[in-house]
Amino acid sequence: MNKLKSLLSLFLTMFKIGLFTFGGGYAMIAIIERELVEKKGVLNKDEYLDIISIAESTPGPIAVNTATFIGYKSGGFFGSVFATLGVVLPSFIIIFIISIFFRAFLSIKVVAYAFKGIEVAVAFIILTAGIKLFNGIKKTPFNIVLMALTVVSVITCSVFAISFSSIYYILIGGFIGIVFYIIAFIREKKFEKKNNDNGGNK
Amino acid sequence: MPLLLDLFLTFLKIGAISFGGGYGMISVLKDEVLKKGWLTYHELMNFIAVSESTPGPIAINMATFIGYFKGYSLFGTVLGGFLGALIATCAVVLPAFIIMLIIVSLIKNLLKFKGVQAFLSGVRPVVIGLIIATGLSMILAVIFGITKISGGFSFDFKSLIIITIIFIVWLTYKLIKKKNISPILLIVISAPLGIVFYGLL
C-alpha cells in the first residue's frame, strides 16, 4: 500500500513537471532539480548531475531519459514506468486536444496568416538553437570539420534533391568517432613501444 | 494496418537515433516525414510551432501530433486519430525508456566504455551540424522558396522583412538582457507580423 502511494506521488510529480515545462528538455531539467533535489530530496546533487550527462548522451527525449532514471532509482521498474507515463501524459493530452481542432483552426484566414509569420520564426529558432549548441562544445578541429562537413553536405543534398537521411549522417559520425579513436589508440601504442625500445637500448 | 506499423517503426527509429534533444529530433523527423509524404512542408512547420509553444518535450508533442493526423486520415474518426497518436508516442518513447533502464539497472557504466564515448564524440558535432543545416534550409525555404533546385525559386520579400525584425528583436534582447529570448516569445511576436504582412499589406 505504501509502495502504491509512493508510485502515485512520483507519477503526480512527473505529471506536474510535464505539464509546466515549456521549451524542451533543458528547461525540464531545471524544474526537476527544484522539485526532486531541493524539495523532495529524492536525488542528491551528484546523482542529479549524473542524470544530466547520461540523458544528454542517450538518444530520445531528455525528459523521458530523466524520468526513467529517476523512476527506477526511487521505485524500480514500476517506478520508471509511472515516472515516464507521468511526464509524457500531459503532452499527449494537450496535443491530442489541439489536433482535433487544428485543421479547422488553420482554415480561419487570420490564423493562416499568423502561421505564415510563425513559420519564419520557427526557422530562425532552429538555427539559433543549433548555433547555441555549437557554442557549447569544444572547438577542436575534429568537431569543427565534422560539423561543417555535415552542414555543407545536408544543404547540398537538399538543394539538389538527393535523398540522404539524417540517420545516416548520425551513424557515419559515430563511425568516424570510433575510427579516430582506434587510430589514436594505435599511434599511442606505437609511441609507447618506441619509447620502451629506446629505454631498452640504453 | 501497414500504415500503423509504418508509423510505429518510423517513430521507433526516430526515438532510437535522435541525439541532442528536441531539435536533434526535428532534423531527423523532417527527412522521414517529408520523404514519406506524411506532411507537407507547411504542415511540418506549423506542427513544430505548436510543439514549441505547448508544454512538454518537443519530440513527444511532434509524435502525438503526426500520429493523430495519420490515424485520422486512415480511419476518418477522432478515435482513429487517438490510436495513431498513441502508437507514435509510445514508439518515440520506447527506445529512450529501454536504453535508460539498461543503463540504470544492468550496465551502469555503459557510457564510460571507450567505444561508446568514441561513437558519441563523432555523433555530437554531426547532430549540431544537422540542426544548423535544418535551420538554414528552412530559412532558404521561407525566404527564397527554395526546397530543391528543380523546384525553381520565388523570392518572398515579406518573409525577409519578418526575419529581419525577428533578428533585431532577438539581438536587442540578447544585448540588453544578456540571454536568449525564449522561443515562445519569438513565436508570439511573429504571429501578428504574419497577419500584418500577409493579411493586411
Task: Explain what this protein looks like in three dimensions.
The complex is a heterodimer of chains A (202) and B (201). Chain A has helices spanning 2-20, 25-39, 45-57, 62-106, 109-136, 141-159, 166-201. Chain A is mostly helical. Chain A has 2 domains: 2-107; 138-202, no CATH class. The radius of gyration of chain A is 24 Å and the shape is flat. The model of chain A has no long low-confidence stretch (mean pLDDT 83). Chain B starts with a helix and ends with a helix. Chain B has helices spanning 2-17, 21-35, 41-53, 58-75, 78-106, 114-144, 157-177, 183-200. In chain B, 80% of the residues lie in helices and 0% in strands. Chain B has 2 domains: 2-155, no CATH class; 157-201, no CATH class. Classes of the chains: A mainly alpha (202), B mainly alpha (201).
Descriptive tags:
heterodimer, A: 202 residues, mainly alpha, B: 201 residues
Secondary structure tally, helices of chain B: 8
Topology pattern of chain B, helix = H, strand = E: HHHHHHHH
SSE topology string of chain A:
HHHHHHH
Question: What is the helical fraction of chain B, as a range of percent?
Answer: over 70%
Unreliable parts of chain B: none
Q: So what's the oligomer here?
A: heterodimer
The description of the largest β-sheet of chain A is: none
N- and C-termini, Cα separation of chain B: 47 Å
Task: Give the percentage of residues in beta strands of chain A.
Answer: under 5%
- Domain count of chain A: 2
Helical residue percent of chain A?
over 70%
Question: How many helices of chain A in DSSP terms?
Answer: 7
Largest interface: A-B, 99 and 113 residues
Unreliable spans of chain A: none
Largest sheet of chain B: none
What is the beta-strand fraction of chain B? under 5%
Mean pLDDT of chain B: 86
- State the total count of DSSP E strands of chain B: 0
Tell me the count of domains of chain B.
Answer: 2
Question: What is the C-alpha radius of gyration of chain B, as a whole number of Å?
Answer: 19 Å
